[in-house]
TrEMBL record:
Pfam families found in the cross-reference section: PilM_2
Source lineage: Bacteria, Candidatus Wolfeibacteriota
Residue spans crossing the bilayer: none
Protein name: SHS2 domain-containing protein
Domain of life: Bacteria
NCBIfam families documented for this protein: pilM (TIGR01175)
Amino acid sequence: MFNILKSFLGTNSILGVDIGTASIKAAEIVQSSPKPRLKNYGILKTYSHLSRPNSAIQANSLKIVEDETAKLLAELVKKSNFKTKEAVASIPSFSSFTTLIEMPIMSEVDMIKTMPFQIKQHIPLPIEEVAIDWIKIGEREDETGKKQQILFISIPKEIIIKYQNIFKLAGLKLKALEIEGLALIRSLVANDPTPTLIVDIGARSTNIIISDSGFLKLNNFTDFAGASLTQAIANGLGISTRRAEELKKQKGLKTGGADFELSTLPQPYLDVIIKELIGAKNRYENNYKRKIERVIISGGGANLIGITEYFENQIGIPTVIGNSFLQVNYPSSIQLVSRELGPELAVAIGLGVKNLS
Ligand SMILES: Nc1ncnc2c1ncn2[C@@H]1O[C@H](COP(=O)(O)OP(=O)(O)OP(=O)(O)O)[C@@H](O)[C@H]1O
Ligand SMILES: [Mg+2]
């Protein structure tokens, strides 16, 4: 039942579904050459998380409001007129556990023998309560010899069951689950070997990912994200979070004159995120002796006006907004209405192109 993490989809179209705190996003992807084709997409936003944090789509990892989420997902499928019923969904970083280990290079047979022991050592939860997957992501040689790097991914079975229930209730077939970090690398980096720092700023959490040679090397998250910026504006100006959310989207960081105060209010929170990014970058560079060469920002938070300049100044390396549409073809009938969609749909598109390309 729990081989859902490791599956070959064996289908020629798939719905990538990203259930976030503030919205559900889906991308319908069809097998095609040379690139997978984006057939259709849809986004359903909810503002309820602003006034009542507990009513967010995902209040926390163990309290997904199943029925409510299933209803929203069914509504999105209907509205967007998706034809594909088979889906892949993402598990947010705060609901999964990833760890990178190094071990000697060995045969496949020996790997299978040693894995239960490795898992017991590295996964903090009781083994019967989690589903586990591992991926070989690289090799490295040091004075003690050649080693392989293995990424362990574990997800509580309770979370998997919740996702299965939600998709079933919404009339979809959940074929696989994947952590957001892997989906983001697929849609934003693909095979580009450049050491890259990806920062996905959602409403509730910010994912920090390092990709090198196209592999996930580090996956952290922080609770400072879009909602923290909104809250800072609401508190600073003494206004409602709904109004603060509007102002944040309208004005962003590039404001002068009368709006000066507004533009400075979110900065302390952005600085916390940046501090985490610099910490991850320094750790990686020290451990692996590789320089991170660029930053890619995704998630709804990437659309904050002025964010690339702000990040580039503070971190000191080239920073761009992620464009997940580069990995797919799309018919002219699909209007990519705005530049904002490229970073927002990054997880959904990354999920959809899994095993299809
Ligand atoms: N134009 C904009 N300017 C500033 N912030 C924006 C803009 N558009 C969206 N956001 C912010 O992006 C956040 C939502 O991003 P996203 O849709 O990626 O979140 P999510 O995936 O639902 O949340 P999470 O990943 O944390 O569960 C909100 O905090 C929203 O205020
Ligand atoms: Mg998200």
